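JOB MANIFEST
job_type = single_chain_structure
chain_count = 1
residues = 163
[input]
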Amino acid sequence: MFTVGIITASDKGSRGEREDKSGLVIREMVEACGYEVKRYVMLPDEQDELEKEMIYQSDELKVNLILTTGGTGFSKRDVTPEATLNIITREASGIAEAIRWYSLQITPRAMLSRAVSGIRGETLIVNLPGSPKAVKEALEFILDTVGHGIEILLNRTSECARR
């Protein structure tokens, strides 16, 4: 169906000091929906490394969807939204807004998310939260609609779906 790249932004994870549970949740959920994971990496919270990886997955691997986890909070090291904004050509802010809205029904701390979403070429990029629980909740809420968005991006929608 669609190809996916997963990027976990975590200083501790990239040093082997923490297991990447959130990235694994993403992988399990997208594969259960029939998506093919083409690349799954864990990187430190370094903006230039995150940007290079997103560009690589989008421009070279040509994945349809990049899902990031981590690096969207208030810490000075949380730079995933900035990296994403630097490399996208069009924002898809409704996705990040929908995740925040849905997450606010669960916890008021969702208002602290700085996550963004956007498009680079034929790749949709979505920043997800860092915790496995929040990743699961967000993906359950958006995955079906995001799939439809990718179909539109790739001009794969049926005549009925366009009405």
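[summary]
Residues 132-153 form the longest helix (22 residues).
The chain has one domain: 3-153.
exit_status = 0
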